[in-house]
Design goal:
The complex is a heterodimer of chains A (257) and B (263). Chain A has 257 residues and is α/β, with parallel strands linked by helices. Chain A has helices at 42-50, 90-99, 111-127, 143-156, 173-190, 201-207, 249-256; strands at 2-13, 16-27, 31-36, 57-62, 75-78, 161-165, 193-197, 210-216, 229-236. In chain A, helix 5 links the parallel strand 6 (161-165) and strand 7. In chain A, helix 3 crosses helix 4. Classes of the chains: A alpha/beta (257), B mainly alpha (263). The complex binds adenosine-5'-triphosphate and magnesium ion. Chain A: This is ABC transporter ATP-binding protein.
Chain lengths: 257, 263
């Protein structure tokens, strides 16, 4: 049963097609990694999933709902940077995940709701190993801690899909590896449907159930911008791609080197 | 060592002044242009301590109170206007396309040239003085704060949307708190011009106030009084700046650049 359905998606900026004829059907609980050359439209695809932008043609539906017109609580997002609020403490950031959407003023309407949000925040702090940093401001956290906070903040809103745009791109390799473990645990706990853009192919295969490759199928050397990108490969990456593909991470790395 | 270096220029200026004053007073003991420091101190003591014979009030404190109220009202109105307008212009593109050009042109109008209009429109009372200060610094604050709003990473706005925030919630809980430290900085910068507008307006039409007093006693060449007032205004400006700076530090600890002491 398809949970996220992308039908004949096109996106054009100022007359230049960026994405064309993207069709996709993703089941609930799938972790989809997205890779592709720089500038080929991966972030654009995420912005369309997020409903931050509208498709030029085609549509995206989630769980059979009509296409969204604006970002909302159905869609969580973590960017490479600036995903948390710098003027709130770590704990306030997690409480804000409940408060911002609670009323039109962005504040919790009752003491009971406040208490409940604080309990959720404290549990999340414990879960992401930041209980001792609750009163600190994000600027004093390491990059990995900030991204853990951003992911936790998104998950508190219980989105239907979680979107990650190069979430670990700014982290050093050691931190990145521990973030992978964290994300895999989170995914098992929440059974989330995730779309993650990455430049790191092995990261894509390690975390993803599916790996999508975006690329241009048509190419005119005289007019490099004449055509948009689409999904050119759709790997099943469970168990490192075995037995669905005979493609192991090692071979993929050889190809990319 | 650091303090000694900081004090050095002040001491130098004091010595130069004392030397020049001595020379003039040696030539003409009734010279009023450069009164001896002892005369200034005596005058200052009289100013802060002795009530006026006619009104029974101590004019010095009266002037100070009246001027500070004018300054606070003018700056307060400008700060509030700047905050609201800066937020709206920075956050909503259609507001920006409607008003940013207007504000840019508005900020080119020399406020002092508008002063006669204010006197005609609001009379010679308090309103025109407060209005001059507010009009003089509001365009700067609007531009500064709308610029800061634009600089807030769009990622944060999108993130707030994905947490279900309304536009109002984004404005109040994401943008506004991040503008407040910049507002304090902006007000600190705008206080120089604000004092200028205050003193100019008081000099032209007032019955009391620090600027009024300076320009009144100018007729009698009362340099001792003028210098006392100038020193006092400078001290007030310094203290206000200090208070704003420490308030900003205390209220918005997250906005301090790490390790930077700054001015
Ligand atoms: N708002 C916009 N207006 C016009 N062109 C845009 C806009 N946003 C993106 N583009 C263009 O669309 C193309 C795809 O951009 P996008 O950010 O989706 O690429 P990407 O695959 O995420 O690249 P990267 O790997 O560098 O992050 C780029 O050529 C970019 O210049
Ligand atoms: Mg991108």
């Amino acid at each position: 049963m398809s949970y996220v359905t992308v039908t004949d998606l096109h996106k054009t900026y100022a007359g230049f097609p960026i994405l064309e004829r993207v069709n996709l059907s993703v089941e609930k609980g799938t972790f989809v990694s997205i890779v592709g050359a720089s500038g080929c439209g991966k972030s654009t695809f995420l912005r369309l999933l997020l409903a931050q932008e509208r498709p030029t043609r085609g549509e995206i539906t989630i769980d059979g709902q009509p296409p969204a017109l604006e970002p909302n609580r159905d869609r969580g997002i973590v960017f490479q940077r600036y995903s948390v609020f710098g003027h709130m403490t770590v704990r306030e950031n997690l409480i804000a995940a409940e408060a911002l959407g609670a009323t039109v003023w962005g504040v919790l309407p009752s003491r009971a709701r406040r208490k409940a949000a604080e309990d959720v925040a404290d549990a999340a702090l414990e879960r992401i190993g930041l209980a001792h940093m609750g009163k600190a401001y994000p600027a004093s956290l390491s990059g990995g801690m900030q991204q853990r906070l951003a992911i936790a903040q998104s998950l508190i809103a219980k989105p239907r899909i979680l979107l990650l745009d190069e979430p670990f791109g700014a982290l050093d390799p050691g931190t990145r590896a521990s973030m992978h473990d964290f994300l895999l645990e989170i995914k098992a706990e929440w059974d989330m449907t995730v779309f993650m853009v990455t430049h790191d192919l092995s990261e894509g295969f390690k975390l993803g159930d599916r790996v999508l490759v975006f690329d241009k199928v048509r190419w005119d050397p005289h007019e490099p911008h004449a055509y948009g990108a689409t999904v050119t490969y759709d790997f099943d990456a469970r168990n490192g791609g075995i037995p669905f593909q005979s493609l192991s991470i090692e071979t993929v790395e050889e190809i990319t080197v | 060592m650091g303090y000694a270096l900081t004090l050095l220029p002040f001491v130098l200026v004091l010595f130069v002044y004392m030397g020049a004053s001595d020379i003039r007073l040696a030539e003409n003991p009734s010279d009023k242009i450069l009164p001896a420091p002892s005369t200034i101190v005596a005058t200052a003591e009289r100013l802060v301590g002795e009530p006026d014979k006619r009104s029974g009030e101590i004019l010095f404190w009266n002037d100070t109170g009246i001027s500070l109220v004018r300054l606070a009202l003018g700056v307060g109105i400008a700060a509030l206007t700047g905050l609201v307008a800066g937020l709206l212009i920075g956050l909503f593109p259609y507001m920006r396309s409607t008003f940013s050009g207007f504000v840019a042109v508005l900020s080119m109008v020399p406020p002092l040239a508008v002063l006669p209009i204010l006197f005609i429109a609001f009379g010679l009372g308090e309103v025109s003085k407060v209005a001059l200060i507010a009009i003089g610094i509001t365009p700067f604050l609007i531009r500064d704060l709308s610029q800061r709003t634009v600089e807030i990473p769009s990622e944060q706005i999108v993130k707030a949307q994905t947490l279900g925030a309304s536009s109002l919630a984004i404005a109040l809980r994401v943008v506004l708190p991040q503008l407040l430290p910049r507002l304090i900085q902006g007000v600190r910068l705008a206080l120089g011009p604000a004092w200028l507008f205050l003193i100019a307006a008081e000099a032209i039409a007032a019955e009391a106030g620090l600027g009024y007093r300076i320009f009144l006693v100018r007729r009698y060449l009362a340099m001792d009084i003028i210098l006392t007032y100038v020193a006092w205004i400078t001290f007030l400006a310094f203290i206000i700046d200090l208070l704003l700076r420490s308030a900003g530090r205390r209220l918005f600890p997250w906005s301090e650049p790490a390790g930077g002491s700054g001015l």
